[in-house]
User: Fold this.
Amino acid sequence: MNWDDIRIFLSIARTGQILAAARRLGLNHATVARRLTALEESLGVRLFDRSTSGCLLTAAGTRFFDRAERMEAEAVAAEADLGGDTPEISGTVRIGAPDGFGVAYLAPRLGKLSEKHPGLKVQLVPVPRSFSLSRREADIAVTIDRPETGRLVAGKLVDYALGLYASKDYLKEHGTPQSPSDLNAHDLIDYVEDLLYSPSLNYSADFTKNWSARFEIASALGQTEAVRAGAGIGILHDFIARGDSALVEVLPDIKLRRAYWMVTHESSRPLRHVAAVQDFLRDQVARDKIIFG
Assistant:
């Protein structure tokens, strides 16, 4: 059994397409297809059901995927062990994070990481969605829920608070709510409900049962910009909104608590460059814990 063929198998399983796997691996499409066929013939089983829309793992392929990932983890561990005497941290690490945390908090601090490890390349993907670590969409994921399944390693990164905010101009024109029931008379801003990728993002019920949004925006930063522009009252992250002089906290005694989790795939454990980024993230949020509320 050829390790390169197994590596190709894993890439096809994670991308769901031979063409996408070829692009990711920097190989010719025909070469990837041929190596997959060779692997299936050597094992005597069909690993994928191939169609024009992609490749779907068969029952045998699903069983083999788990074993192949374990082989990959051992190969990664061996590589890390043999390179353990190398003093410089280098390589590429992709971080997937919610847009609020990724853009407003993490992006301005990545320069410090580059100063500490000049040989390290960091890719930040700050979008409001979940990331599949098993499909290698990211090396590190910052999530708002602790994963319950999969070969993942998760640890709480930091607790954070959210509150109600409005712009000074909006409150001057519409008045300031004095109780949750007063919110019903105001223009409210919320997430697009059918695009919520986690129940934890359904904040509004914690403030009032009758929350009826006039504006729905599928991004934490988009909501912040709408509130800043005077479009209405929104539920914003304290670590983003508190430092903005244009925003005023409404009903400050009412707070919502959530947590960010840092998640990696089990096979990434031995990788020094991934561990270095994890250490950086832990150190940064520990220093800035007060701003998260």
Summary: Residues 48 and 249 are 54 Å apart (CA to CA). The chain has a mean pLDDT of 89.
